[in-house]
Write a structure and sequence with these properties.
Layout: E1 3-12, E2 17-25, E3 28-33, E4 40-43, E5 47-51, E6 53-58, H1 67-71, H2 77-91, E7 94-99, H3 105-112, E8 120-123, E9 127-128, H4 161-173, E10 178-182, H5 201-213, E11 217-222, H6 225-233, E12 238-241, H7 247-256, E13 259-261, H8 265-275, H9 282-305, E14 308-309, H10 325-332, H11 337-343, H12 346-351, E15 369-373, H13 376-382, H14 385-388, E16 389-394, E17 397-398
Parallel strand pairs: 1-4, 1-5, 6-7, 7-8, 9-10, 10-11, 11-12, 12-13, 13-14
Antiparallel strand pairs: 1-2, 2-3, 5-15, 15-16, 16-17
Helix pairs in contact: 4-5, 6-7, 8-9, 10-11, 11-13
């Protein structure tokens, strides 16, 4: 088997960046060190070699927050748009994602079988919501808005433990690798309040119990302080957004080992699209404006206290391919560049239970690598990381 050596660069070790070479055979890293040999050489002089990056919160089937555009989009078109969304994500160096709502088993299988190019993915299929919750798309006129349900996307609005047991089992049947719930209201939903908690303890306990029985974890869209607490004390693996995180919530997350996936980009993407003229309702804009400053404060609180953090963007609410802007925001609000890269590699791999295979440049790991021209940490700080990506390898194969 051909040995490819990436030589002369600097290797991100998970906490620091040091001079080094990386040797790949087939789809695996077989050696990392200084002065290594191979059959084929890739000159990495002047480059930083990163592990394949993660985004733990994307929506490949969504292409923006414009409701009018969504209502005028043919049913099947988002499946084709997803091809470009996945490619844009992969080309910026993100080789693994969690799709947090929208992609069904067919989308995931198309990537797994090599029919289309994209990051490897874990899919939630659809988000579990209470009636009137963050995934209940009922409008005041009586209509239901997108995404439309179809054979690959079951209805997941449910109330009470027994209804929820059925929904979780249905999602597992439909190929879910992760269960996503909404334990609070949100910004993009028409009739929910981000400050209000959704689902009671017995409901989330049932969800977690059924997910655990299927060998999968639960991620929770949770903005309100109470919604975060209810999710954490009942065993969810990660809190998504965490906008109104309290000191008590931080303590519970640390005690339970719960991750935060902050998605700092999310409200900004909504506001940027509105500024560009997209049709976004005043209700949603008011909520987006209301959460921005609270969002950053919650992130700072969690980071300073030592909560485990993994990178996620909510891309799909806004453009795909701009994912790496999230690292710059994390640095702007308190992380060092190396901490932001760690959150996007090793920590994210651990969250997704993929740490045995991915997240580090180490012998035995899958050969996902990103070559960045110059100093990757400086690019993170300056917001220029995407522009500096020169090559992306997934399973040892160039995909850029």
């Amino acid at each position: 088997m051909t040995r490819i050596v990436f030589s002369g660069g600097r290797v991100f070790t998970g906490r620091t960046t040091e001079p080094g070479d990386v040797v790949v055979e087939g789809d695996r890293i077989v050696d990392v060190g200084i002065g290594l040999d191979g059959d084929t050489k890739v000159d990495a002089t002047g480059h930083t070699i990163l592990p394949g990056l993660f985004d733990c919160h994307v929506h490949f089937m969504f292409s923006g927050a414009d409701l009018v555009r969504s209502l005028n989009t043919p049913f099947s078109l988002p499946f084709y748009e997803a091809i470009g969304n996945m490619k844009a994500t992969l080309q910026c160096g993100i080789t693994t994602v969690r799709d947090a709502l929208g992609a069904d088993l067919g989308v995931a299988e198309a990537v797994r079988r090599g029919l289309i190019q994209g990051p490897r993915m874990q899919i939630a299929v659809n988000m579990v919501s209470q009636t009137g919750g963050h995934n209940d798309d009922w409008m005041q006129c009586g209509a239901h808005i997108s995404p439309p349900l179809h054979p690959g996307l079951p209805d997941t609005v449910a109330d009470g433990p027994e209804e929820l047991r059925k929904v979780i089992r249905t999602l597992v049947r439909h190929g879910a690798d992760i269960i996503k719930i909404a334990s609070s209201g949100g910004v993009m939903s028409p009739r929910s309040n981000p400050r209000h908690a959704h689902f009671r303890d017995e409901e989330i306990a049932m969800i977690v119990q059924e997910a655990n029985a299927a060998g999968i974890a639960v991620m929770s869209h949770a903005m309100s302080g109470d919604g975060i607490l209810t999710a954490v004390r009942n065993g969810v693996r990660s809190i998504e957004h965490g906008v109104f995180l309290t000191d008590e919530g931080v303590e519970e997350m640390i005690k339970n080992g719960t991750w935060l996936v902050p998605t700092l980009m999310a409200p900004r993407m909504v506001l940027d699209q509105a500024a560009a003229g997209m049709a976004i309702s005043d209700v949603i804009l008011d909520k987006a404006n209301a959460v921005v400053s609270q969002h950053f404060q919650a992130f700072q609180k969690a980071h300073q206290a030592g909560v485990k953090i993994a990178m996620g963007t909510d891309s799909g609410v806004g453009p795909h391919g701009d994912n790496l802007n999230e690292l710059t925001l994390m640095v702007e609000y308190g992380m060092s560049p190396s901490e932001a890269l760690y959150a996007t590699t090793t920590s994210a791999a651990a969250l997704m239970r993929l740490g045995n295979e991915l997240g580090e440049l180490a012998p035995g790991k899958l050969a996902d690598l990103v070559l960045v021209e110059g100093d990757a940490e400086q690019h993170v700080k300056a917001g220029t990381l995407k522009r500096a990506v020169r090559a992306v390898y997934q399973n040892g194969v160039s995909v850029s």
